[in-house]
Amino acid sequence: MSKTRGWIIQSVAACLSGLCGTTLHAQQADYEQVDLKESGTIVGVVRYEGKVPKPKELRVTTGDQPCHKGPIMSERLVLSADRKVKFAVASIKGIGRGKPFPEQDAQNPVTLNQQGCRFQPHVLTVPLGHPLRILNSDGILHNVHAHTMINDGFNRAMPPKLKQMDVSFDYPERIKFTCDAHDWMKSYIVVAEHPYYAVTGDDGTFRFENVPLGTHTIEVWHEALGKQKQEVTVAAGEEVSVEFVLQRKKKRGKR
Ligand SMILES: [Cu+2]
Q1: In angstroms, what is the span from residue 28 Cα to ligand 1's centroid?
Q2: Would you give the DSSP letter of residue 249?
Q3: Which of 3, 187, 212, 223 could form a disulfide with 177 if both were Cys (CB 3.0 to 4.6 A apart)?
């Protein structure tokens, strides 16, 4: 059974037994947070292979607003000069136990900003059940539309006076966000069921510390370049390196 299907069945079972609303705890229980006596580190890099496309300007379709006086560039495929890939999501597939989640509190929430008529950052991860704070720094009307498959979706206006809104998600999922007021705005929020998730930065790298010993499957997903998996073996006190080489997907329907 797929894990996603398992979560849905678990959720329905919880509702049938009168536990609707408590399913979040069941999801969190799928990952055991432990103090590891021995662990290692995984460092990775995501590299692009193929013809490097020219930076693409997004088609701005609404009237002149302060937030888009200049061109807005696409972040669908952002490469460094040496072809390292930004905004790839790396994770340890199916890990059931390991280090605790980092502390999250109201003073330090995961934030997604609407600034310059774009979502910033373009891709981010938020731990399962933790709040995601959505900001509206532009001070104009935005409309946040979360395209969920298994979580409750929403489609909420953020008028100029509404500077922030907190949301959270009950199930691990990669969720596309769009803005119904500005159709070029797009972002991906990855709801993470364990703390071994990372988004690559400008240099295309990611790093997982305090990884349990043994063989793990690392999965990398990128909006334009698809998915790839590799196995790595972690030894006590050692650092293991992994490189992913991604190519452009053949054109199919957009998700
Ligand atoms: Cu908008």
Answers
A1: 32
A2: P
A3: 187
